[in-house]
Predict the 3D structure of the following.
Amino acid sequence: MAAAAIHDLAAIIDELDARGRLVRVRSEVDPTFDLAGLAAEFEGGPRAVLFEKIKGHAQPVFTGLYWSRELLGDLLGKPERELPAHVASCIKNWQQRPIDPVVVERGPVLEVTENRVDLAQLPIPIHAEKDGGPYFDAAVVIARDPETGVRNASIQRFLVTGPDTMGINIDSGRHLELYLNKAAERGHALPFTLNVGVGPGLHFAAATPAEAAPADTDELGIASEFHGAPLELVRGTKSGVEMVAHAMYALECEMIPGELTEEGPFAEVTGYYAKREPRPKVHVRALHRRRHPIFHTILSGKEVYNSVGLLGEANVLSLLQRQVPGVRDVYFTHGGSGFYHAVVAMAQKRAGWSKQAILAAFAAFPPLKMVTVVDDDVDIRNASDVEWAMSTRLDPRTGIITIDNIFGHGLNPSFPDYLGAKVGFDATRAYPHRYEHERAFYKKVSPAKYDIVVPEVKAAKKRAKAKKNGNGGPDASGGAAM
Ligand SMILES: Cc1cc2nc3c(=O)[nH]c(=O)nc-3n(C[C@H](O)[C@H](O)[C@H](O)COP(=O)(O)O)c2cc1C
Ligand SMILES: [Mn+2]
């Protein structure tokens, strides 16, 4: 897709439609449970989904932009296996010479402004049956450091608790937590904007881990790299914090330090419910939107693997390639909830570098719980192949590293209060390589060059019928069966 249109979700949806990559749900759908249940039927497939009629609402809902790397690769014009390297190169360009966003006078998000906010008017779905209520789960937060003014972008989940109030979940170590603490020290509120319905450039900028975009950098510039042009912002009318000019909706919000509200449960990317607990309360002061907005929601499974996971993968890949000779590729497995298990492929140059790769991967992305390093003759995207390396090359006496009492991801039940243990598996061959560990391969031969007859396998039921009618296959004629 033309880079120029990638910042606009409406243009993206039209483009997906033109490419046969948009499922349109024409029937009315209940946003409470049914929408997510139906979306789950399409999760991971090559198409996103537009719910045209939402029960009780005039505005449609869109989901699925991130649940397939094939879809994402097609949209960004990259083969899916090259996505981590593409993302890594965009971030590297930004680190070396950032293209700052520009503030413009007008944008589609300013078409309608509502100063009396009623969140119940928005078609915000309730996903899982035990969720605490409707959630914003794909919207980008823009805030400014109360001390330095540096902007930050992040994605947090927000539970709607009233017409103009919400609860937010800020994980430990997030830059937004730092900003809120700084606002508390100064005794004032922390204003921010919540931007719903943005393109993948800004979504990826917001999901860029702190290890790649530290607190003193304006990570909004990362979006400009994906767009091929500066990200366009408009100034908020209440606090002056910027909003995304091409968002579907932008909410001007603030948190008053110390004010808490009950937030949760929420069906999380881990496959478990996040606990209901007192968390920061949010006041919505104004709502801006397009005249015909589309609400963007995501299912917190594969969609998060390909945003937090993809960005984590890109960072681990670029750091490892700089620090550990021989690293070829990195993949965060789906079985590892998308960002708890990294598999690293390397062509060893020296004994011991594989263990170095384990430590560097943990440092590059703290939510990781497991790192498995294999040789570059293993397909890291194939769980059986990785298991083959573990069962034939890993020496459990010397190849397993455990680190106890280390910071991890709070949503992972094995890190209660963000503390737990991590494990690294060195499943590479002993170096220097020995004959016993050399993988056997067949010559690559293309069947297309040969005249081959491949019969259709007949179902057992059909075979029995054919036999009864006296025109059986090899069984009936006494021929040899293979
Ligand atoms: C769909 C999605 C939902 C997320 N939900 C949360 C959340 O509820 N709380 C949170 O702290 N981080 C959440 N994250 C992760 C952060 O947005 C991400 O780690 C980001 O890099 C944090 O920004 P920061 O480094 O500027 O603090 C989510 C990410 C995605 C992609
Ligand atoms: Mn940040």
